[in-house]
Amino acid sequence: MKKFVFRDHSSIGHFISEEGREDFQIAYNEAMELLPSPRETKDIKTEYGVVRVYLFTEEDNKHKEPLILLPGRSSSTPMWEPNLEGLMKKRPVYTIDLLGEPGMSIQVNPIKNQKDQAKWLNKVLIDLGLKKVHLIGVSIGGWTAMNLARYYPENITSVSLLDPVFVFAPISLKMVAASIPASVSFVPKFIREKMLSYISGGAKADEGEPVAKLIESGMRNYKLKLPAPNQFSDDDLINIDLPIFALMAENSTMHNSKRAVKKGKNVVKNIKIKNCPNASHAINGEYPEMINEKILEFVEQNSNDNDILK
User: Fold this and answer.
1) Where are the beta strands (DSSP E) in the chain?
2) What is the mean predicted confidence (pLDDT) over 91-97?
3) Cβ count near 65 (within 10 Å)
4) For residue 272, which phi and psi values (nearest 5 degrees)?
5) Which of 118, 154, 208, 295 is most buried per CB count within 10 Å?
6) pTM of the predicted structure, to 2 decimals
């Protein structure tokens, strides 16, 4: 049966089999059990598909500008488990399963380019009825946040980035080579796990850890059909006139973080960017308390919490 998978020319992201979908659903449900109970769960219709959004908040924070959390590749909402409880104590938090990635969002039409990527996310913010939000993105979620700021900055108050890819520095050739076996379902599991460990900066994959299990299932069972993210040019970065906070991972295998910090400082108008010592690309799970503290401090400095809802 697998021979049909590789002949599939669909232009829409999809699970490669019903068994794969069920395997992922079980892993997703198990990982979601680690999170606080969401206050709301919404499925928002866009031109490109239905987007799953969760709201986590405490009653006292409902009047504040919310945080929008955008996950890394193949990760979805549960990857924010280390950060979520701390962030929601201070502000409303919306988590989004990215469209075209393994998760509870369902793609129904092709996403052809970077503007399409921004268009569906902007529609989600509009339908949530939010005037201003603070975006937080890790890895490809960081690129997604900056891509929205590139095309639709109107509803964004600030952007916080955790080792974002394709924003301040290009992906290394080693990482391009490593990512291929990590994401191909027919590659033996031990090779895929070794490559995923390299991507995470050497951390050993723990099959029993629910979020790691979820990511592995997503990469094995879901076929991405998204346009490749483009590298932000100097002009792209210069034209984004929003407060930006970026923590690059000093030991990231994705890119040269020192060059990324230098580029950000030299090009972006309103940015706080630095390297996080000893951090790998899995930065949000390695230093959650520090990251939460830094992001919340930055958000507080750039917030206007009056009349956030339409």
Assistant:
1) 14-15, 40-46, 49-56, 67-70, 93-96, 106-107, 133-138, 156-162, 222-223, 244-249, 271-276
2) 98
3) 22
4) -115, 115
5) 295
6) 0.89
The size of the chain, in residues, is 310
**SS3 assignment, position 170:** coil
User: Can you say whether residue 179 is alpha, beta or left, with left for phi > 0 and alpha for psi between -120 and 50 degrees?
Assistant: alpha
| Structure token digits, residue 304 | 């206007």
In degrees rounded to 5, what are phi and psi of residue 263?
A: -60, -45
Q: How far apart are CA 103 and CA 285, in angstroms?
A: 19
Q: Could you tell me if 131 and 308 are in contact, meaning their C-beta atoms sit under 8 angstroms apart? A: yes
Give me the residue label for tokens 């033996």: 188
Chain segment 225-248, per-residue pLDDT in tens: 999 999 999 999 999 999 999 999
**Tokens (6 digits) for 176:** 């391009």
What is the token pair recorded at 107?
């793609």
Q: How far apart are CA 294 and CA 309, in angstroms?
A: 25
SS3 label, residue 131: coil
Average pLDDT, integer, range 159-179: 81
Higher pLDDT: 216 or 203? It is: 216
How confident is the model at residue 2, as a pLDDT? 35
Q: What mean pLDDT is predicted for residues 191-207?
A: 54
* First-last CA distance in the chain: 51
Buried b (16+ CB within 10 A) or exposed e, 222-250: bbebbeebeebeeebbeebebbbbbbbbb
User: Cβ contacts of residue 73 below 8 Å, gap of 6+?
Assistant: 101, 139, 140
Per-residue pLDDT tens digits for 108-132: 999 999 999 999 999 999 999 999 9
> Which DSSP state fits 155?
T
SS3 151: helix
Instruction: Return the H-helix or E-strand segment holding 30.
Output: helix 18-32
Domains of the chain by start residue, with CATH: 10-170+224-301 (3.40.50.1820)
Find residue 220's DSSP bridge partners. Answer: none
